[in-house]
Amino acid sequence: MAWYVRFVVLLVLLKVSTSLEAQDNLSLTFIENKNQWTPDVHFAALVRGGQMRIGPGYFAYRLIDKETIEANHLQTHLHSKPDAVSDFIQGHLVKAQFVGANLSALPYTFGKTDEYWNFYLGNDAGRWASFAHGYKGILYPGLYEGIDLKVYSIGENLKYDYVVAPYADPSQIVVQYEGAERLALDNGNLVLKTSVGELVEKRPIAWQIMDGRKVDVEVAYNLNGQLVTFCFPQGYDPCYELVVDPLLIFSTYSGSTADNWGSTATPGEHGNLYSAGVTSQQLGGDFPATPGAFQQTNDGNWDIGILKYDSLGKKLLYATHIGGESAESPHSLVMNNDEELIVLGTTSSDDFP
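Now predict its structure.
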């Protein structure tokens, strides 16, 4: 079959509602399980390098080698080194198990998102799920006796708090890490080495609120084989609530949660910013198309992905796919005087929209 390219000029009108402009795309979104995953999964979130799953008494990190995926993509465009494309993508699973936790603790959610997800997995309609909503955080009350677990994020990194009630015992918290090639403490940080990179649990912090003021409490990890606990060298006042606050960093992984590459960018109206590239969902991930976008899903091999940000580049205001059944790629963007975004690019799809 012959491969061919058409040159196209595409005019796209991007008029974004106020509700979309309030959307913050930098934090993790925890998507509820409505039977699209196995029953032991409560929530899942896309993270740098893969996916995180949360269930009764555990966190699981399913990671893949993004560098090989990106190298494969580059080789398919060069068409010069077909033997350099790898048929094998390395993956790695790490599980953090809360030893002795209350597995019947039912989660509460907060920060419900406007968007929702529909899942059609395989030909078993029992695994299909509609209107699966996302949340900005989860609370597991009574994970241990007198200890709640709050899960949320700061940017693209995982944040979770152990909230220890007065006179509750924080030594109940025992986390067993399974699947890491190596666990080590480095300057107070817990480093988990895997075959596709490292996860870093930053040095924890802790505090208490006493008479309306925040009092820091010295805290550190204690590592014994695969088991991690917390120690408090200077002690703390058991009459007050204690918060222990770790942070998990995913920044050691390259790439985004979707399989995509940037190509071009331009300033837009009122100081907003636009960027464009190619995106594919063949290898997993989720390009963040926003509600009401021109094209919500990937329709072929490689689609154009267009994103609109605020003037600081911190808020995603709009994102859309553009493409047909084959492959597209953008080459340049320009905003005209009518505040319309013009995209110059190539397509090999007969059904380009």
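The first helix runs from residue 18 to 21.
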